[in-house]
Amino acid sequence: MATTTREKFDNIIEIKNVTKVFDGITAVDNVNLAVRRGEFVTLLGPSGCGKTTLLRMIAGFELPTSGTILLEKQDVTTVPPHLRPINTVFQKYALFPHLNVFKNIAFGLKLKRVPTGEFDKKNRPVYRKFTKDEIAEKVERVLKLVNLEAYGYRGITGLSGGQQQRVAIARAIVCEPKVLLLDEPLGALDLKMRKEMQLELAAMHKDIGITFIYVTHDQEEALTMSDKVVVMTDGAVQQYGTPKKIYDEPANAFVADFIGESNILSGVMKKDFLVEFCDTQFKCSDKGFGKDERVDLVVRPEDIAVDPKKGALKGEVVSTVFKGTYYEMEIMAAGYQFTVQNTVERAVGETVWLSIEPDGIHIMKKLKTVNEYDGEITAENTVKFCGGEFEFAGGEAFERGDEVRVSVPFDKIDLTDDEADGVIGANVTQTLYKGSYYQVQVYTDDDNDFLIDTVDEWDIGDRVGIKIDPRDLTVTRKEKEQETEPTSASAEAEEGDENAQ
Amino acid sequence: MSKNVRTGLIWAFVGVMLAVMYVPILILIIYSFTGAKALGVWSGFSLELYADLFTNESVLNAFKNSFILAFVSAALATVLGTTAAVGIYHMRRWKKNAANFVANITMENAEIVTGVTFMMFFLAMRLPYGWTTLIIAHTMITVPYVILSVTPRLSQLNPNLYEAGLDLGASPMRSMFTVVVPQLIPGMISGFVMAFALSLDDFIVSKFVNGSVETIPVYLYNALAKRGADPTLRALSSVLFVAVLAVLIALNVVSVRHKKKVAKISG
Fold first, then answer.
1. In chain A, what are the helix, strand and coil shares in percent, each to the nearest 5?
2. Which DSSP category does A482 fall into?
């Protein structure tokens, strides 16, 4: 997790160890984040990753279950939204339908109090409301900024989506917030409008210099507009960095898959600057991994060179599609289907050679190499974890009630179509194609996740059952898990990824 | 059967249904414009009965009572019903169902049971029958109708509207009144009108808790019981019928207009 908690003065927002749990479901999981004054930061992730919940906590609409939110070093965690100098542009604008454009925008200004510069007897600053003229002037100015000068006295319901969007932005920025929050503000617009608004928003951000925190699930939008991108999944920050850094050096397979087209493979680090995948060794530009450490790696489709005669990997063209300025080809090589983008087309069925420059290969730490859980022995050869009772092949004698550590390799878990066929039920939350197999992530009802390597394709949102062969479960005593020998028949189960290659 | 015959039969059926429903009241209205003592005798057109009616102290008093009662109880029901609708709308699943169920009981319950219940309740509370008991009872029986007409407005609302108010610096109270309530006004108006009409023509519940206060339906019943079919009652019934009908037509016209407006906006 990329956490930034630099103690710099110009951090306008600091989020420290913030967790939000709804009805036992963790929506935001111990997030740390610092946003610098004036930046355009985008929270990016698939729906349900916690990005909107995080935004709503910054706005004050949700209280964190734990953790603190600082605004200019002041703890605002429990400050109600109407007292925060933060404004929001909502997903469906939430304009007030009973007010015209002018009155919508003036709504916040009428409530705002500004110091007069004078002090009362007790030396407290005296506040006053804006005058009618001041309000009119500010509204006119902001209408001009969003290109709606002539629209002040129009009703809201007669406006197009794009115009409503502009009014929503104007209504928020006219209050001169310290931070502007935008919750998927372009989601309801058509493609052309969205592209235009993206540019306008970026320009507006430059103009007014307010810090923007923007939520979206559209990676292209995030990369185009932001200074920094926060990639989130499962309520946790996966990576925080500039768009370029996130694209060129994704922190893990999830980020690589989510950002742009990519080929994600499993490999082994032979030594610094040398990685092996597809039974071939490649020079790379990464170091600092252990010898023979299993890694994920990403190769962008534009970084693969195709030659009819020479290269590192021999492959065959499976399909080709013209994409306007380049051809996108699927090329089968060493059991993996590579996506390749090139300006020269190769015919389907043609044999080609692929090569990759060292800086075209980006190595990432594997997120997890085995599924591990805490469990409890409930009967002879039965262990309870993740809300289900699983049988395991006995060996060492356990007592009922013993606390144990249970582990099972990714490729030793069976998913069943019918939830009732499995020991416990789970929902598929993520699937990642790894060339020759899928890595599927499922969440159980008690919020534990399993990673499963499988050749079957599952859809996100599928309800599945989880079944594990008793021989593939490794159960170890908890208090001395290092010394205890695994009791499972397949002692080398921890190396489970091997079989999936 | 040919298509014409079938259509004919359908219309005949509809005609019979409408006749059964409306011919009696139509006859009553027609005969309210003649002075004859017995119903069914036409002694020439005259507004005699209406003149009698509107010079009769106790009738005028009953009219006044009915309208005051309808106005006060409908106003109270609108406030209570709107508040309840907002509260219920934001409840979670099972609580919401439970609250809706409880709110609808007075609507689905046999009116006579509701009436007896109120009578016994006020007796137990040692509350003398009269204006207070009438207003309480009428408010309670009309609240569900206000909830029913406000809830659809709530579900059409943008869920972030209230939060947008807070976000722009309005306190929770202020956001509620300046942002949410204005959106509910059409629902509140139709709820008020419905409550007004229901209160105006309620007899059963009123009869149990009215004490010495006579509303039009109660006066009508008492007059019938005391003096038999007094011809002025024909005029009185007609006035009551037309009054309630007028209110309901007004309500429909308002809601049709509103629907057209909505259709125009979304179209």
1. 25, 40, 35
2. T
Supply the CATH number for residue B188's domain. Answer: 1.10.3720.10
Q: CATH 3.40.50.300 residue ranges in chain A?
A: 1-85+178-248, 94-176
d(CA A301, CA A257) in angstroms, rounded, equals 12
Write out the residue limits of the CATH 2.40.50.140 domain(s) in chain A: 262-365, 371-500
Q: What is the mean pLDDT of residues A23-46?
A: 91
Based on the structure, what is the number of domains in chain B?
1
Could you tell me which CATH number the domain at A371-500 has? 2.40.50.140
Residues of chain A in contact with residue B175, where contact means CB-CB under 8 angstroms, are: 82
Q: How confident is the model at residue A39 (pLDDT cuts 50, 70, 90)?
A: very high
Q: What is the ipTM of this complex?
A: 0.73
Assign domain A1-85+178-248 to a CATH class. alpha beta
Which CATH number describes the domain made up of A94-176? 3.40.50.300
Residue in chain A nearest B166 by alpha carbon = A82
Can you give the length of chain A in residues? 501
User: Which tokens sit at A391?
Assistant: 């049988």
- Which residue is listed with tokens 């009551």? B240
pLDDT of residue B259: 67
Per-range mean pLDDT, top range of B4-8, B52-56, B146-150 = B146-150
Say whether pLDDT at A500 is over 60.
no
Question: What would the CATH number be for the domain defined by A262-365?
Answer: 2.40.50.140
The tens digit of pLDDT for each residue in A334-354 reads 888 899 998 888 888 889 999
d(CA B32, CA A100): 52
Integer-rounded Cα radius of gyration of chain B: 23
Contact B160 A92 (CB under 8 A): yes
A81–chain B nearest CA distance, Å: 6
Residue of A88, A96, A114 for testing the chain B interface, max B β-carbons within 10 Å? A96
**A92 contact residues in B (CB cutoff 8 A):** 158, 160
